[in-house]
């Protein structure tokens, strides 16, 4: 178990207009993959803009434990990879802390190696289902030597002598499952195919192509994606410039929208269309978000977002959009709390298996702070109060979930009464600079040393 032994509460309160420019840290999905693919590829990979959050650093440690050399040189990370197929058996368990992406992708990466690997994580990660990545691996010949009830961590895997390639139809919209199967395919002879009925973030496909993998994506007339990977090819070290994380940008963005009179620019945000569902939804709600200076960076499009506080109106968010904004629902629910009318969010089943049951955690936090909302099996309806009159005043349970913590701190910047969260320490998993950035824009947030 690796839980932070000292939780720290934090309170945010009604703030005057936010202003200025800010830069969010590197994209978490791309940063994990930069360490993994760099650690696996032959030769040197140089990464700039890497997210130095706890989740990603644990992936770096795991790659080191399996033979890669990983070191920081000023603003860059230099990785000397092992070469595809040449990872070493780690001497001890790989501890992924709070990181679903780290553990699920690495389970795929090493699952087809003829070696024994043990995976552990914190209380939150140990509650999350791993069967979704173990099932395809079992088909490829991996033995699950140890797993807790419901295929949960700690897990020990023993890979086969020779893995069998599979064609796998991903049963839920999950980039982590898609990626785990493709990474297992890297060390498997022949062709591994992933069939993806609902498109999810495509960083694995794009980055593997960049590293030289023999990968091909075809979309059939029904819109189903077929991703075909030839195993045991050569991967070559790359230069990677990681763009700013849109999932982190979501917090200053929503804060700016709901604090009256605010005007903020968030620089260098990744605009990959599989990640911009929140921006689209907020624009439909009437948000003034202007992407400026759109440009290419490291094989992706980035932009600076100029955001001004806006009168928001409730909308129905289509279920099909969920994969493109999956981590942004908690903060969208906060924006909806200040919108006129009802915002209906649909297709949220995957929210129940994140760092917390996010649907339940968000609904509980909103209700405690006076927001009128209804939680369904896979839906959330929020009826907002423009100007936040009468809202706030409660302490929110974060359940070791960084997005719940940041979302409710954003909420307290515009509610009548302050909002407290029981712990802010886990924000460092994805956005260590959150407090400094928000305070720099004028947000009133204070931390309290003792747990509440
Ligand atoms: O592949 C990735 O980098 C991620 C995929 C998503 O998870 P799922 O695949 O479980 O939807 C997302 O929630 C997570 O933060 C990052
Ligand atoms: C779900 C998330 O991450 P992970 O699955 O990597 O823990 C997230 O960052 O919101």
Automatic annotation (TrEMBL):
<keyword id="KW-0808">Transferase</keyword>
<feature type="binding site">
    <location>
        <position position="403"/>
    </location>
    <ligand>
        <name>phosphoenolpyruvate</name>
    </ligand>
</feature>
<comment type="pathway">
    <text>Metabolic intermediate biosynthesis; chorismate biosynthesis; chorismate from D-erythrose 4-phosphate and phosphoenolpyruvate: step 6/7.</text>
</comment>
<dbReference type="InterPro" id="IPR023193">
    <property type="entry name" value="EPSP_synthase_CS"/>
</dbReference>
<feature type="region of interest" description="Disordered">
    <location>
        <begin position="1"/>
        <end position="26"/>
    </location>
</feature>
<keyword id="KW-0057">Aromatic amino acid biosynthesis</keyword>
<feature type="binding site">
    <location>
        <position position="354"/>
    </location>
    <ligand>
        <name>3-phosphoshikimate</name>
    </ligand>
</feature>
<feature type="binding site">
    <location>
        <position position="28"/>
    </location>
    <ligand>
        <name>3-phosphoshikimate</name>
    </ligand>
</feature>
<comment type="subunit">
    <text>Monomer.</text>
</comment>
<feature type="binding site">
    <location>
        <position position="358"/>
    </location>
    <ligand>
        <name>phosphoenolpyruvate</name>
    </ligand>
</feature>
<feature type="binding site">
    <location>
        <position position="327"/>
    </location>
    <ligand>
        <name>3-phosphoshikimate</name>
    </ligand>
</feature>
<dbReference type="InterPro" id="IPR001986">
    <property type="entry name" value="Enolpyruvate_Tfrase_dom"/>
</dbReference>
<feature type="binding site">
    <location>
        <position position="29"/>
    </location>
    <ligand>
        <name>3-phosphoshikimate</name>
    </ligand>
</feature>
<protein>
    <recommendedName>
        <fullName>3-phosphoshikimate 1-carboxyvinyltransferase</fullName>
        <ecNumber>2.5.1.19</ecNumber>
    </recommendedName>
</protein>
<feature type="binding site">
    <location>
        <position position="176"/>
    </location>
    <ligand>
        <name>3-phosphoshikimate</name>
    </ligand>
</feature>
<keyword id="KW-0963">Cytoplasm</keyword>
<feature type="binding site">
    <location>
        <position position="176"/>
    </location>
    <ligand>
        <name>phosphoenolpyruvate</name>
    </ligand>
</feature>
<feature type="binding site">
    <location>
        <position position="28"/>
    </location>
    <ligand>
        <name>phosphoenolpyruvate</name>
    </ligand>
</feature>
<dbReference type="InterPro" id="IPR006264">
    <property type="entry name" value="EPSP_synthase"/>
</dbReference>
<feature type="active site" description="Proton acceptor">
    <location>
        <position position="327"/>
    </location>
</feature>
<feature type="binding site">
    <location>
        <position position="100"/>
    </location>
    <ligand>
        <name>phosphoenolpyruvate</name>
    </ligand>
</feature>
<comment type="similarity">
    <text>Belongs to the EPSP synthase family.</text>
</comment>
<dbReference type="GO" id="GO:0003866">
    <property type="term" value="F:3-phosphoshikimate 1-carboxyvinyltransferase activity"/>
</dbReference>
<comment type="function">
    <text>Catalyzes the transfer of the enolpyruvyl moiety of phosphoenolpyruvate (PEP) to the 5-hydroxyl of shikimate-3-phosphate (S3P) to produce enolpyruvyl shikimate-3-phosphate and inorganic phosphate.</text>
</comment>
<feature type="binding site">
    <location>
        <position position="33"/>
    </location>
    <ligand>
        <name>3-phosphoshikimate</name>
    </ligand>
</feature>
<dbReference type="Pfam" id="PF00275">
    <property type="entry name" value="EPSP_synthase"/>
</dbReference>
<feature type="domain" description="Enolpyruvate transferase">
    <location>
        <begin position="14"/>
        <end position="435"/>
    </location>
</feature>
<feature type="binding site">
    <location>
        <position position="128"/>
    </location>
    <ligand>
        <name>phosphoenolpyruvate</name>
    </ligand>
</feature>
<feature type="binding site">
    <location>
        <position position="174"/>
    </location>
    <ligand>
        <name>3-phosphoshikimate</name>
    </ligand>
</feature>
<dbReference type="InterPro" id="IPR036968">
    <property type="entry name" value="Enolpyruvate_Tfrase_sf"/>
</dbReference>
<keyword id="KW-0028">Amino-acid biosynthesis</keyword>
<dbReference type="InterPro" id="IPR013792">
    <property type="entry name" value="RNA3'P_cycl/enolpyr_Trfase_a/b"/>
</dbReference>
């Amino acid at each position: 178990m690796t839980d932070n032994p000292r939780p720290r509460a934090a309170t945010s309160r009604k703030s005057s207009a936010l202003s200025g420019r800010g830069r969010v840290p590197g994209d978490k999905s791309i940063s994990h993959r930069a360490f993994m693919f760099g650690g696996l590829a032959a030769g040197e990979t140089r990464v700039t803009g890497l997210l130095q959050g706890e989740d990603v650093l644990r992936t770096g440690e795991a790659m080191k434990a399996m033979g890669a050399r990983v070191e920081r040189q000023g603003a860059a990370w230099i990785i000397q990879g092992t070469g595809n197929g040449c990872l070493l058996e780690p001497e001890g368990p790989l501890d992924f802390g709070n990181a679903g992406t780290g553990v699920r992708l690495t389970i795929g990466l090493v699952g087809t190696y003829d070696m024994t690997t043990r995976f552990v994580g914190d209380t939150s990660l140990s509650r999350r289902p791993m069967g979704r990545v173990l099932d395809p691996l079992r088909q490829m010949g991996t033995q699950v030597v140890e797993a807790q009830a419901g295929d949960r961590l700690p897990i020990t895997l023993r890979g086969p002598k020779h893995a069998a390639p599979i064609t796998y139809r991903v049963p839920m919209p999950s980039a982590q499952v898609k990626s785990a199967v493709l990474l297992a395919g890297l060390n498997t002879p022949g062709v591994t195919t992933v069939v993806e009925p609902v498109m999810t973030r495509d960083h694995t496909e794009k980055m593997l192509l960049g590293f030289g993998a023999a990968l091909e994506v075809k979309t059939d007339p029904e819109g189903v994606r077929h991703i075909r990977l030839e195993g045991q090819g050569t991967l070559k070290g790359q230069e990677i410039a990681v763009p700013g994380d849109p999932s982190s940008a979501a917090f200053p963005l929503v804060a700016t929208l709901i604090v009256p009179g605010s005007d903020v620019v968030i620089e260098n945000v990744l605009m990959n269309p599989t990640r911009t569902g929140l921006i689209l939804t907020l624009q439909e709600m009437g948000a003034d978000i202007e992407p400026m200076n759109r440009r290419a960076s490291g094989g992706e499009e980035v932009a600076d977002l100029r955001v001004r506080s806006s009168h928001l109106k409730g909308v129905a968010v289509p279920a099909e959009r969920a994969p493109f904004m999956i981590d942004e629902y908690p903060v969208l629910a906060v924006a909806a709390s200040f919108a006129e009318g009802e915002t209906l969010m649909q297709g949220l089943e995957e929210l129940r298996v994140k760092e917390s049951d996010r649907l339940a955690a968000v609904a509980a936090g909103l209700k405690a702070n006076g927001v009128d909302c209804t939680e369904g099996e896979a839906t959330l309806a929020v009826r907002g109060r423009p100007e936040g009159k009468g809202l706030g005043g409660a302490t929110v349970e974060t359940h070791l979930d960084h997005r719940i913590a940041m979302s409710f701190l954003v909420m307290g910047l515009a509610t009548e009464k302050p909002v407290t969260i029981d712990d802010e320490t886990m924000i460092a998993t994805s956005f260590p600079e959150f407090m400094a950035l928000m305070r720099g824009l004028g947000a009133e947030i204070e931390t309290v040393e003792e747990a509440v």
